[in-house]
Specification:
Structural class of chain B: mainly alpha
Strand content of chain B: under 5%
Shape of chain A: globular
CATH architecture of the largest domain in chain B: Orthogonal Bundle
Number of domains of chain A: 2
CATH topology of the largest domain in chain B: MetI-like fold
Number of domains of chain B: 2
Helix content of chain A: 40-55%
Radius of gyration of chain A: 19 Å
Low-confidence stretches of chain B: none
CATH class of the largest domain in chain B: Mainly Alpha
Number of strands of chain A: 10
CATH topology of the largest domain in chain A: Rossmann fold
CATH superfamily of the largest domain in chain B: MetI-like
Oligomer: heterodimer
Low-confidence stretches of chain A: none
Strand order of the largest sheet of chain B: 1-2
Largest sheet of chain A: 6 strands, mixed
CATH superfamily of the largest domain in chain A: P-loop containing nucleotide triphosphate hydrolases
Largest interface: A-B, 25 and 20 residues
Largest sheet of chain B: 2 strands, antiparallel
Number of helices of chain A: 9
Number of strands of chain B: 2
Bound molecules: adenosine-5'-triphosphate, magnesium ion
Distance between the termini of chain B: 27 Å
Radius of gyration of chain B: 25 Å
């Protein structure tokens, strides 16, 4: 196992008006090169916080992240992020959105022609070559997310971080996107951390599923190895007993061991508080 | 198809009906109002004055040409008589016509507006990006924002007189006074809207920039500026509208050349045509204000990615 990422002893305290709020407590995780890891857990447990710390967008209060022997201290293109709501620049076309990233990352290493080819290659990978001169407004949700993935892939990252990349999509589009992602993974073998709420998605795509306990002071509860052969096929797997067992294991963690009964109103309040403090931090 | 024709017809006919009703009401009301300068002008009187004003303008231009012609001839004669003579040209100092005043006002408002934009956009971006700058500037902006720019006028006049004391100025002082007043009134809405636009950029877009490690200048150029263009234009349209209103008032108050002075002069003049000429000026002021806003809207359409804000 060729270790690429090491998250060790990460603690995250958010300052709040009522004193520090400990979101994460002692997160330890090692990820091997080419591994696909899913983070799953109930809403608000701290999945995005973990991802943002790896991305360098947040600084851990304690502990740290080491990528390829270097400590992570700020964001960078070697840790490309695919955001939940695509976050394409609305005034640029799909092509230009990828171009912005490519021009920045390869400004000293690729010629103009090489860059053009590289941008098109990445849009091809996500099957967006036919609509690359459209603005985000003119694209469907799934297409926008494809461009977001193309932009991240085009940075040629050492690790790809995805925060609920398909969370906003309908079930059918989501399945398409998962297939595209598997296809790309077959070819590129990127190291990936993906946050998801979808148990099937986690089992289908991952090599390992990391299950987080409920917050506050959330930590890693269990880690599940998904030893299903690749390439995987969703229809064949539906009747596979190993698949069914793995799926049941995740479900039992989420809904028996970490059952979360939270009144709806309280959850909504938490979400809006989080939003407020997020924008205050910005 | 037929539906389409119907809707376009509707779009044309309804405003037309509105117009006709307005003109009818106006002429009815006008014939019933008696002022010390005669009857309140109706549509007919105003139309007559429009053509009179244009004729006056043409006549004035003919006079100017003749004046220059006479000077050129005189100079030529003197040079022929005495080769050492350095010919002098005096500028024509006739009365400014209505058209001249329109041009003056337009130039003044454009210069004042552009100067304000040059200051306000960079300032607004810096304030929007930096919490510290925001805290520093906010009280100043909040206090100056509600001040009528006309209150600045006396101060501006005095400062310009004191600082701009060259014997032969490039632009007249009165122009500077009006222009700076316009700038002062455009400044605040533009700074505020720009800074709000910059401060409210989607956090995810900022994160994209951080992940790419865009240098500060590139960050502003590629992310901040385009993202806040809709708000910048909102501020610009708002301030251009105010500026045009304020400029006319400032010209009246300070007797600076422009449409405001035209209105004031006609009022002082008190002839039987004065009211219809003032009313003609009122229409022109309104129409130019409308054109200025439409112009800004077209520029916004061209520059802004957010077509929804441009169509308002
Ligand atoms: N900037 C912040 N300030 C204060 N508290 C925060 C901040 N960001 C997140 N939190 C808190 O940290 C906890 C974890 O948040 P996080 O966004 O990581 O959850 P999540 O697992 O990604 O949830 P979801 O699945 O709903 O996206 C939450 O309780 C949240 O309220
Ligand atoms: Mg999240």
């Amino acid at each position: 196992m060729n270790e690429i990422l090491n998250i060790s002893g990460v603690v995250m305290d958010f300052p709040t008006p009522k004193g520090p709020f400990t979101a994460l407590n002692n997160i330890n995780l090692k990820i091997a090169e080419g591994e696909f890891v899913s983070l799953i857990g109930h809403s608000g447990c701290g999945k995005s916080t973990v991802l943002n710390i790896v991305a360098g967008l947040h600084q851990a209060t304690n502990g740290g992240v080491i990528l390829n022997g270097k400590e992570v201290s700020e964001p960078g293109p070697e840790r490309a992020v695919v955001f939940q709501n695509h976050s394409l620049l609305p005034w640029l076309t799909a092509y230009q959105n990828v171009e912005l990233a490519v021009k920045q990352v390869f400004k000293n290493t690729k010629s103009k022609v090489e860059m053009q080819a590289w941008i098109k290659h990445n849009l091809n990978l996500v099957h967006m070559d036919h609509a690359m001169h459209k603005k985000p407004d003119e694209l469907s949700g799934g297409m926008k997310q494809r461009v977001g993935i193309a932009r991240a892939l085009a940075m040629q990252p050492e690790i790809l971080l995805m925060d609920e990349p398909f969370g906003a999509l309908d079930a059918l589009t989501r399945a398409h996107m998962q297939d595209t992602l598997m296809e790309i993974q077959n070819e590129l073998r990127n190291t990936v951390i993906m946050i998801t709420h979808d148990v099937d998605e986690a089992v289908l795509l991952s090599d390992r599923i990391v299950m987080m306990t409920n917050g506050p002071a959330a930590t890693i509860g269990e880690i599940l190895e998904i030893n299903l052969a690749r390439p995987r096929d969703r229809i064949a797997l539906a009747e596979d007993t190993t698949y069914t067992k793995l799926r049941a294991a995740v479900l039992s963690f989420l809904y028996e061991k970490q059952r979360k009964i939270e009144p709806i109103a309280e959850h909504a309040k938490k979400k809006s508080e989080m939003k407020a403090s997020n924008s205050a931090a910005a | 198809m037929i539906r389409n024709i119907f809707t376009t017809l509707q779009a044309l006919v309804i405003p037309l009906i509105g117009m006709i009703v307005f003109i009818m009401l106006w002429s009815m009301a006008a014939s019933n109002i008696n002022t010390s300068l005669g009857k309140f002008p109706g549509p007919q009187a105003v139309l007559t004055q429009f053509s009179a004003l244009y004729t006056e303008h043409k006549a004035e231009r003919v006079k100017e040409k003749a004046f220059i012609q006479r000077q050129v001839e005189r100079n030529a004669k003197r040079v022929a008589a005495d080769p050492d003579y350095v010919p002098k040209m005096r500028a024509y100092t006739g009365k400014e016509t209505f058209l001249d005043q329109i041009i003056t006002s337009l130039v003044t408002v454009s210069c004042g507006f552009l100067l304000a934009a040059l200051i306000a956009v960079p300032l607004g971006i810096s304030i929007g990006l930096s919490k510290t700058l925001n805290t520093a500037f906010n009280p100043i902006i909040q206090i100056f924002k509600p001040v009528s720019p006309l209150a600045w006028l006396p101060l501006v006049t005095m400062v310009v007189s004191a600082l701009y004391a060259t014997p032969d100025p490039v632009v007249p002082k009165s122009f500077l006074n009006s222009m700076i007043t316009v700038t002062l009134c455009c400044l605040w809405p533009m700074v505020i809207n720009t800074s709000v636009g910059v401060a409210s950029i989607n956090i995810d877009l900022v994160n994209v920039s951080r992940v790419l490690r865009l240098p500060a200048l590139k960050h502003v150029q590629k992310i901040v500026l385009p993202a806040s263009i809709p708000m910048i234009f909102t501020g610009m349209r708002l301030s251009l509208g105010i500026a045009w209103m304020v400029l006319i008032a400032a010209e009246m108050l300070a007797q600076n050349p422009g449409l405001g002075k035209f209105v004031w002069d006609e009022f002082q003049n008190g002839s039987s045509d004065s009211l219809s000429r003032i009313l003609a000026a009122v229409f022109v002021i309104g129409f130019i204000g409308f054109l200025l806003d439409q112009g800004m809207r077209q520029i916004q359409r061209l520059l802004s990615w957010d077509k929804s804000t441009a169509s308002r």
